[in-house]
Amino acid sequence: MVFCCRCDSVIKPKFHHILMEIVISHNIKPIDPARPTFIGEVSGIDLTRHLSDAEVAAVHAGMDRFGVLVFHDQHLDDEQQIAFSRQLGQLEEATGDIMSEKDRRLSMELNDISNLDKYGELLPRDDRRRLFGLGNLLWHSDSSFKDVPAKYSLLSARKIPSTGGNTEFADMRAAYDALDDAAKAEVHDLICSHSQIFSRGILGFDDFTEAERAKWAPVRQRLVRRHPNTGRLSLYLASHAGGIEGWPMPEARSFLRDLNEHATQRQFVYAHVWRPWDLVIWDNRVTMHRARRYDPKEVRDMRRTTLSNEVSSLEQWAI
Ligand code: OGA
Ligand code: MN
After folding, report:
1. What angle do CA 78, 82, 88 make, to 5 degrees?
2. What number does the ligand 1 atom closest to the CA of 291 have?
3. Atom of ligand 1 nearest to the CA of 153
């Protein structure tokens, strides 16, 4: 059953895409004129309340169109953020950090992307949890180190530093499209191994327990994946990718470095300058992102809910 985006009355499916077009063009505008197909800025929606089916469909349609959506002035508390995220799909548990249960500030539905301990105090500069969290400064796609990786990430800015701490997004569809035919053929069927041990290794962090090493044994992901709704291909890269199946290690790592360099050229990248109470949603299947540095003596309180992709990238074959 398809409902009208405005009044929720039942409409014929063949008109649905036309109405979606109207909603998107009316309520979602490209934020960056230089990249009109990347990053939509959404207006006229209050995410603190239960959304209609039509509004949920419009958010998904906007995500398919842009890959990243920015919502301003969304005064969400944790419960509201979780409820809104659940309306979009299946939540992933926040098992990607090194926070022990007793040290957690937030519930298991929320990734704590802050520099705070559970009492709300700043983490010391050399705290192991902070150093592990600095992995977010490297280009990545969330949870690519899990067998079933992330679909959408939803990051809510509760408190931001006075300067720095932007988040940058790279469009991996555009990066794929810009490869020449020989490069497209070369990457088409490659499988990479992803682990948080690899990404932290880049930063010289190897302070892992045996249990963490076992938990983050490498997983396999396709290097090229096809978006199930749009059919577009994208490069599925992340700093967690530390090898290519069947390739000698130095050749794999140098090739992945080249691809990352290609994919994060300025023309593919948007830098988000946060305002308090922004909510940004990105599709991890078609983007990479990274945090930028900020003063560790200032509070940055960001909270992330994450939707599971439900299937491995291996099941999203690039035809
Ligand atoms: C994340 C992340 C970047 C940032 O929440 O997954 O990588 O700028 N955040 O905090
Ligand atoms: Mn991330």
Report:
1. 150
2. 8
3. 6
pLDDT tens string 206-256: 999 999 999 999 999 999 999 999 999 999 999 999 999 999 999 999 999
Amino acid making up residue 311: V
What residue's CA is closest to ligand 1, atom 10? 291
**Residues contacting residue 119 through CB under 8 Å, at least 6 positions apart:** none
Distance separating alpha carbons of residues 98 and 101, to the nearest angstrom: 9
pLDDT at residue 1 greater than cutoff 50: no
Helix axis angle for 78-88 and 53-66, nearest 10°, is: 80
Burial 47-61 (b: 16+ CB within 10 A, else e): beeebbebbebbbbb
Give the closest residue (by CA) to ligand 1 atom 2. Answer: 136
Give 279's strand partners.
71, 156
**Average pLDDT over every residue of 118-139:** 97
Starting from the CA of residue 94, give the closest ligand: 1
What is the rounded CA–CA span in Å between residue 254 and residue 191? Answer: 15
Which residue CA neighbors atom 7 of ligand 1 most closely?
136
Ligand nearest to the CA of 111: 1
Within 6 Å (CB) of ligand 1, which residues are found? 113, 136, 142, 153, 155, 167, 289, 291, 302, 304
Beta strands in 164-313 (DSSP E): 167-171, 191-194, 219-222, 224-226, 233-235, 241-244, 269-272, 279-283, 287-291, 301-308
